[in-house]
Amino acid sequence: MKKLAVTLCLAIIFAVPVFGQDACSQSTKLSNPSKTITSNGTGDLSGSGNTKIHYEMWTNGGAQGSNKLIWYGADKGGGAAFRAEWANPNDYLGRIGYYWGDGGKYTTYKNIYVDFNYTRSGRSTAGDYSYIGIYGWTKSPLVEYYVVEDWFGNQWQNDNTPITTNTTSGTVQGTFTVDGSVYQVVKNTRNNEPSIQGNATFTQYFSIRQTQRKCGTISLTEHFKQWEKMGLTMGNMYEAKFLAEAGGGTGWLELSYLKFSQEDQPRGSGSTPSSSSKASSSSVASSSSKASSSSTASSSSKPSSSSAAVSSSSRASSSSVASSSSRASSSSVASSSSRANSSSSVAGSSSSNAVPESSSSSVEDNCIHTDCQHSLSSSSGGEDPDPILKNRVPITYFSIQPQSDKSLRIEISSPAVVEIFDLKGNKVERFNVSNTQQTVKLSSPSGVYFAKVHGMKSIRFVLK
Predict the structure, then answer these.
(1) Could you tell me the sign of the dihedral formed by the alpha carbons of 277, 193, 114, 125, in that order?
(2) Which pLDDT score, from 0 to 100, does residue 98 have?
(3) Which string of DSSP letters, residue by residue, matches 131-151?
(4) Contact 201/344 with Cβ under 8 angstroms?
(5) What is the pLDDT of residue 448?
(6) Which of 56, 144, 254, 429 is catalytic?
(7) 414 and 267 together in one domain
(8) pLDDT score for 189
């Protein structure tokens, strides 16, 4: 009966689709693009209505034809994957994603998620400033917004130190945690600058991730909600696209996976305003972050106190679609470490995050996905770890990132006991995670495993 129960559990696990797309496993390089753009312009690519996929490339300066936006096609890499290339422009913006034009408030749409995976050129290949992440505009009020996931660094600031108001200008409004990291929110005002409505005065909102990553999920609607809790009003949606922006240099960014989706129900990772946020909440943000699959992450990066002073520049597209933001100039020296580029990718590695379990009972809930795993056979042989959770705190976020040295980078909302199971349901390892970010070396051989903490769905991963 015990073997039968385990067999049934595994059958159900593999029959049920994994919750959400594991973008970090979608690392196969794409080829045979459907469209190559070499001059400023905009246009539709696929879809219609609220799911229309649209592109825009805008560049100022650089050799003719050397700045490109290459789309791989609706049937490849999630349907929106692209490659951006630039060669010494004054400014380059390549972006693909949702376009509404004259849309409604974000609340009129379903929960917007962006799953992505990319590699890029290294430090100082994008000039004095750069942004990688979500970009868009709203109307009434006129707002230009960014969700910054990563950046290329420059000669003053390395590419594993978060950008600050030295780059964006403006003032910090607060912080909140979502998708495994703290985001710092910045508000800035641009006066008589190019915009989607011609030269105008408008507001900029920035969510700046404090630990960069090159793959994962962006819970975009959650950013909108958190901004509004801080008093940052969102207007009617104009666009929401994945952006590569470079203020010079010669470089590239290539997505192997980019998928935009609107879903009826939130995926469940949630967000928590921190104590420094202006949002009214008694919750305290954790400092956990999701590591990038392209390199072995360190614990967490914090804003540099010696970054660059500010100058500014702006840009407008050939179709009068524009954007603008303040840029960094040189006044300080960055550290010498550089973020790993595409050559440092760990083949086969993936990161995943778990969501809280449903309270309903099922065969799946009675097996690897819940605490009945304590009754399964174990090859660990030793005693249980120290009971650090006698007064257990509910886990709201749990993610793992396999590393190249048979270790796991674990990010979790509060201390917990993590258990590792093989495909037969055997518990092979069990250990405490006492910090919200921790790397643990595993002793198990290479193979496919499940990581599990109490109250969360198990996460499947490959150990190499």
Answers:
(1) negative
(2) 97
(3) EEEEEEEEETTTEEEEEEEE-
(4) no
(5) 83
(6) 144
(7) no
(8) 96
Residues 27, 422: Cα–Cα separation, whole Å: 24
CA-CA distance, 89 to 130, in Å (whole number)? 12
Place of tokens 């951006």: 84
Whole-angstrom distance, CA of residue 162 vs CA of residue 148: 9
**d(Cα 425, Cα 418) in Å, to the nearest integer?**
15
Q: Domain ends where: 311, 344, 377?
A: 344
Residue 14: how many CB atoms within 10 A of its CB? Answer: 11
Q: Of 310, 344, 378, which residue constitutes the final position of a domain?
A: 344
Active-site option among 245, 254, 411, 429: 245
The CATH number of whichever domain residue 69 belongs to comes to 2.60.120.180
Tokens of 155: 């000669």
pLDDT of 353: 53
Would you state the structure tokens that stand for residue 46, as one six-digit string?
């696929």
What was the pLDDT predicted at 171? 96
Q: What is the pLDDT of residue 461?
A: 85
Type of residue numbered 151:
W
Annotate 359-385 with DSSP letters as a single string: SS--TGGGTTTSGGGGGS-BS--SPPP
* 303 and 369 within one domain: no
Report how far residue 155's alpha carbon sits from residue 169's, in angstroms, rounded to the nearest whole number.
Answer: 19
DSSP symbol at 346 = -
The CA distance from 236 to 324, in Å, is: 19
**Amino acid at the residue 341:** N
* Whether residue 122 sits in one domain with residue 262: yes
**Residue 392, domain CATH:** 2.60.40.3080
Distance between CA 365 and CA 362 in Å, rounded? 5
Quick check: is 245 catalytic?
A: yes
Distances (CA, A) of 76 to 54, 176, 390, 399, 452: 15, 33, 48, 26, 32
pTM value is 0.59
Ranges of residues in the chain with a pLDDT under 50 are 1-20, 269-270, 274-351, 355-391
